[in-house]
Every structure is written in C-alpha cells, then in structure tokens.
Amino acid sequence: MARLLGVDRRRYYAWRRRRANGPTPRQQRMDGLVEAVKAFHAASDGTYGAPRLVWDLREAGWDVSVKTVAKAMRLAGVEGISPRTYHPPTTVPGPGPFPVEDLVARRFDQGAKDAVWFSDITYLPTGEGWAYLCTVRDGHTRRVLGRQVEPHMKASLVVATLRQAAALRGELPGTVIFHADRGAQFTSAELAEVSRAVGVLRSVGRTGVCWDNAQQESFWSTLKTEFYNRHVFATVSQARRACYVWIDSWYNARRRHSKIGYMSPLQYEQSLVEQAEGN
Known about the structure:
The protein is an alpha/beta fold. The chain contains ten helices and five strands. The chain has helices at about 1-5, 10-20, 25-45, 50-60, 65-75, 155-170, 190-200, 215-225, 235-250, 265-279; strands at about 115-125, 130-140, 145-150, 175-180, 200-205. Helix 7 (about 190-200) links the parallel strand 4 (about 175-180) and strand 5.
C-alpha cells in the first residue's frame, strides 16, 4: 500500500506511534484553549471576537496572542458579530430657536471624565410599533449615564434621560458639554432650559452629518448588532426592560471596550478613582 500510494513507510510508522502516544503537550494546550474560548464566547452572548477574548483569557491565566485565539476560535467553530451597514435616519432637524454651536469638533474623547457627554435617539422595532431609545454617555469612560425608552420622540424623552445622567453623577466638577445631533429634540426650548438647570453646555453637530456624533453612532451599532437585532420584542415594555438590563448589567458592567484598555466602563471609572486616591 505504501508503494501504491507513494508514501514513505517510516512516516506511516511515525504517525502510528503518535496515535499510540496520544496528544502532545502542545495539542493538549490547544484543546484546553478551545474549550476556554467556547466558554468565554458563550459568556459574551456570542458577540466577542479574538481581540476581546484575549483579555478574558489572560485574566483567567492564559498566555495567548490574538492570532492564537483566532485559531482556537476557528477550531471551536465560533466567531464574533460584525455590524450591519444599514442605519435608518431618526434625526429630524428643528427650527433651532436658540442657536447652538459645535463645541466638540469631533474631539469625542477629551481625556477626562465628565468633559463631554453624548446623546442621541435610535428606533427600536417592537410588536406594538416603534419605540425610541435615548441615551447619554460619557465620552471618555464610555459609560451610559442615562437611558430612557418611550413610544415617542418628544423632547421630554431627552429631558428625562439628561436628568437621569445628571442625578447619577451628582455635583459636577465643572461645565459638561452635552453634544448631540441637530434634531428638533436637542434644539428645543425645553431642553435648553433643563440644560441650564443641570449645568451642562449644549453642543450640536451639523445637519445630516453623522460623523459629528460618531461615537454615539458607534454605540448604536454595538447595541443593535450585539443585542437588539438578535431578539424579537412583542411590546414596548419588554423592549424597555431588555435594553435597561443589557446596558446596566452587560455594557456598563462587563463588556470590554478597546479604547479604554479593554476594560468595561465601570471598571475603567473605578481605575480612575484608584489613581486619584493614589496621588
């Protein structure tokens, strides 16, 4: 058979010895890594790719690189989730009775907590029709400070979310820039009054230019791709509860963010506190 197949007999016997001896230490390590990858990938609700799984594995004691984890993911038959490209518009420009400038100029992370907050509204399909989610996020720590879901897009939705963020932070160390798009809700007299009351300075991007609020758009992509579009919600109430749980218990508390050292927003804010106490 060796002559017929053109195979070196020594290679055949070497292969047979390897089979008898069982997997090598290297193969055993890879088998263990594959199982660990499966576990951490499942813990992320099937969303993490190799760059984030690396940090979970390293915390668990594995000395691995991104390429090694990517290989283990292929062997495990798992992969991260990639965002979709379609984003329906929700911005309806308002008359702008109070002129508001762009104070951010795409400098989304200005290097300090509570320097810039970002806000926007996105649509959520439900069995009862559209619901709308408004959030306020810290541009530096990426933490969601306020979140509200309602079946309407009125200015009161933004007002309630901003008040929630201000209440969470308490007394602010200085003036916070509150940046959004130029939708009617964000240029309303109602929001202008509440912004003065809570001590934030409004800022808006240009009409129809999503890149002026790109950090918030990135958050919507994460929420829709990794969570909302993978489920079906019969009612607005169900969608509301599910979004709050995902934001509070996963995104803020556990999801690793590449821009803050692959820590979660809450972990990163705690590290800032520890650094300040150490100084």
